[in-house]
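QA checklist item 7 of 12: single-chain prediction sanity check.
[x] sequence parsed
[x] length recorded as 107
[x] structure emitted
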Amino acid sequence: MSTETVLDPAFSAKRACRTVPTNVFFPKPTDQVTLARARDVCGSCPVLRQCASWAGPLVEARLITEGVVAGVLAPAKQVKRYATARETAVAELAAIAAGDVELVSVA
């Protein structure tokens, strides 16, 4: 287990999302076009793995919900089967952080 603290990628000047409107990362669950746009931005980001490392524990702790982070949609607490959706999101973030998967647009 690493003792290195992962810094919030929002402070990275290299992040691909720095010029993208924030609302792109908070799509309605049925808005596949906006979700695909957010995933495309994340997929081209040079700090994607760092972002996923940072976000995983926060999604797991329910501190990030209802938004796209590192290309993964963190579920809203009100969705059916929230625990399962959250666990899936955490697993996806871990795989991205490890470099085991590439983001594929959902559109």
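[x] summary fact logged: The CA atoms of residues 20 and 38 lie 9 Å apart.
[ ] second reviewer sign-off
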